[in-house]
Amino acid sequence: MGSSPFLIRVGSPYRIVWSANGGERNVNWLVAWLAPALLLALGRLVGFGPAGAPWANPCSWLVMLLLLVVSATDLANRRIPNWATYTAMAWGVLAQGAIVFSGQNPPTHRFGFPPLAEALLGFLIGFLVFLVLYAVMGGGAGDVKLAGALGLFLGPAALGEVLFNTILLAGLVGGLWVFKKILVPNPETTLDWRGRAREALRGKLPMAPLFLAGLLIHWTPAFSGWLGLQSR
Q1: What are phi and psi of 70, to 5 degrees?
Q2: CA dihedral 57, 119, 65, 36 (to 10 degrees)
Q3: In whole angstroms, what is the distance from residue 220 CA to residue 214 CA?
Q4: How many whole angstroms separate alpha carbon 203 and alpha carbon 77?
Q5: What pLDDT digit, counting tens, does each position of 44-62 carry?
Q6: How many other C-beta atoms are found inside a 10 Å radius of the C-beta of residue 143?
Q7: pLDDT reported for residue 225
Q8: In angstroms, what CA-CA distances link 18 with 6, 24, 86, 231?
Q9: pLDDT of 221 above 60
Q10: Which of 45-49, 69-73, 192-196 shows the lowest per-residue confidence on average (mean pLDDT)?
Q11: Cβ–Cβ < 8 Å for 20, 41
Q12: pLDDT reading at 212 higher than 90
């Protein structure tokens, strides 16, 4: 029995390859364009969630899709790919254009997206804050583009809290990582504790999962209220 002429496989955690009749083609960008459309169609079909919940709108679904994808690639390869961040920015711009073109100006009809001016301001804040951090502390350029993309979807107010949570978590996780490296010697090296600390500081902390955690923390009060856990 012959093999199927068409096959989609994951060539690595951040490469999606289409195999057809012995040839291969990288389809990362195509999948990155189509996945949000399919997700929004699914949300339209089954509903985006309970009324009033911060995640119960198309904007939040797109943000979660972006963060879940880049968290997986960042954990696996310490890399946030351009096909994820650039297409997310493009979807944000297209959404703003569609809202303006349709005349849906009231906030309740914006499908969770911030007003255009707030979206642009959020993009600039996210991009510039992480550009400064990148210039001063190093890291990955993907973190800068991811912060800008999130600002486009969240606006400055929500982004500010998410960035605060993310940077706080990064300091905590990074500090624990350095502390572990100092206390637990690597048998394959002869570095003293100072050398182990310098080696740990040169490592790249995967920021995408911390962005995801920062967003979930931002949503925590709403989660609590929805579940009826807030004090009466």
Answers
A1: -70, -25
A2: 80
A3: 10
A4: 13
A5: 888 887 777 777 889 999 9
A6: 27
A7: 47
A8: 7, 6, 21, 52
A9: yes
A10: 192-196
A11: no
A12: yes
Residue with tokens 């931002």, as numbered in its chain: 218
Residue 145's nearest CA partner among 199, 100, 89, 91 is 89
Across 170-176, average pLDDT: 83
Give yes or no for a contact between 209 and 74, defined as CB atoms under 8 angstroms apart.
Answer: yes
φ/ψ of residue 75, rounded to 5: -70, -40
Supply 56's token pair.
């119960």
What is the pTM assigned to this prediction?
0.81
pLDDT in tens, 5-36: 445 555 555 666 676 666 667 778 888 899 99
Closest Cα partner for 119 from 91, 86, 138, 142? 91
Six token digits for residue 91? 């979807």
> Which two structure tokens, joined as six digits, stand for 85?
């961040």
Q: How many helices (H) and strands (E) does the chain have?
A: 7, 3
Looking at residue 16, the DSSP 8-state letter turns out to be E
Q: Which two tokens stand for residue 155?
A: 């606006």
Residue 169: HSE in the Cβ half-sphere, 13 Å Cα cutoff: 20
Per-residue burial over 174-197, b = 16 or more CB atoms within 10 Å of its CB, e = otherwise: beeebeebeeeeeeeeeeeeeebe
As a whole number of Å, the CA-based R_g of the chain is 20
Q: Please state the rounded mean pLDDT for residues 79-108.
A: 82
